[in-house]
Write a structure and sequence with these properties.
Layout (H helix, E strand, L loop, with lengths): L1 H12 L6 H19 L3 H6 L1 E12 L5 E7 H8 L6 E5 L3 E5 L2 E12 L2 E15 L2 E10 L9
Parallel strand pairs: 1-7
Antiparallel strand pairs: 1-2, 3-5, 4-5, 5-6, 6-7
Organism: Novosphingobium aquiterrae
Protein name: Nuclear transport factor 2 family protein
InterPro entries: NTF2-like_dom_sf
């Protein structure tokens, strides 16, 4: 009986334990969030995230030290209003973990500004399901200007 309990517990921790529909819905939510960034659409960005959430950006300062900046999701939306640069972010090979009404999306990404590669890194999104819709609660990413994959 103890072995059966361990097997069931292990199955709950396997990423595949979430339904394919849940993972697909989480991916679609992240896709909408990124489409809003790529379109400089602050209203669409706001509609796909929690305003009380946070964004975190990890980068290397000119002196080589690792730094972390953050802002609220609401501030992120306001900073997007009136932006003129053409942004394009894309990811590949996402890992999506879902348990109940929370999820994490992790993927390498690249980021271009006005058609020129700015940087790449790792995107991590924490999502929550609110009234049947997956929303980005928190977003984190690394900023790595060197060594970007040719994707």
């Amino acid at each position: 009986m103890r072995k059966l309990g361990l097997v069931v517990a292990a199955m709950l921790l396997i990423p595949g334990a979430a339904s394919a529909d849940d993972r697909s819905d989480v991916k679609a939510s992240v896709d909408r969030w990124l489409a809003a960034i790529n379109a400089n659409d602050a209203d669409a960005l706001a509609a796909n995230q929690l305003p009380q959430g946070m964004t975190f950006r990890q980068f290397h300062a000119p002196d080589g030290t690792l730094k972390l900046s953050n802002r609220s999701n609401a501030d992120w939306v306001e900073r997007m209003r009136g932006a003129k640069d053409r942004l394009h972010e894309r990811y590949w090979r996402p890992t999506i973990l879902v348990h109940g009404g929370i999820a994490t999306f992790w993927a390498p990404y690249s980021f271009d500004i006005n058609g020129k590669r700015s940087h790449c890194g790792i995107d991590v999104f924490d999502l929550v399901k609110v009234e049947g819709k997956w929303l980005v609660a928190n977003a984190m990413w690394t900023v790595e200007p060197q060594g970007c994959a040719k994707k």
